[in-house]
Structures are given as C-alpha cells and as structure tokens.
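User: I'm curious whether this sequence folds into something compact or stays loose and floppy. Could you predict its structure so I can see for myself?
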Amino acid sequence: MARTQGDPMAIARTVVQRLYEVDPNQPAGRIQSLEQYRADSIAAAGIGGVMSLAVSQRVHEIGVRMAIGARPAEIIRMILGQGMGLALVGVIIGVATAFTLTSAVKSFLFGVTPNDPATFLAVAAVLAAAALAACYLPARRAAQVDPLRALRTE
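Assistant: Here's the prediction. I'll summarize afterward.
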C-alpha cells in the first residue's frame, strides 16, 4: 500500500519497480486505487441489496407457490436461477466492455498483457462468486416464508 498526492495509478509502475528492487520474488499482483477497491466492495454489497429487495417484493408470490406445493429447495433454485442469470449477463457485458477498453488503459497494466485471459477469468469468477453469495441469502430467506402469513399480507 502506498499513499500518494494525486492519481495513484500514475506512480504505480514506479512503486512496482521499487518493490522488485527490494525483492524481485515479491509478487505485485492486484494494483488498484483505494477508490477502486471501495467501488468493488460496494458493487458486491449492491447485488445483495437488489436481490433482497426483489425477494421482499415477491413474498406474496412465493407464499402462493409454497401454498400450492412448491418445496423450499425449488424456491431457492428459482431465486438463484433468476439472480445468477442477471449476474451472468452483467459479467458477460462487463468482460466484453473491459476487453474492448484495454487498449485505452494499456499503459497502466503491470505484469500482464492487455487481454490477459487469466485476469479476465479471475475477475469474472470473483464477481460470479459474490453474486452467488448475494443471491443465496435472500433465496434462503424466501424458502422460509410462511405461506399463510404471506397470503394474509396482501
């Protein structure tokens, strides 16, 4: 971690070079600004918030499904399927956009090629895992809905 006065990515290459001068075997992997790190965290939390809201707005529907015989596992599968479908579309659009914009940020990349498949796959996997976790918690809550209570609320 390094504190800067200005754009942190402008001195990132210099910081990595100094790191390698001290210890050439030290990995300098994920280089990002604190703002980028915060934005990634907020994005993961945002997925969970959106899924929780979507599930809470469908309590009546979920109650009806359970009243006519849907099992909790089916409710979980339904919510996970819908949430992960949206997440998959987002990951595909994000990877495609990043792939097309890498030429613009080529000078900021260190130790990877602009279209490094391992980096793209790692980011997609992390986002998919965050989306799965964010979808699972609301799905599990939805599976515990009491059908009678859900039907009475509407």
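Summary: Residues 33 and 83 are 29 Å apart (CA to CA). The two ends are 52 Å apart (CA to CA).
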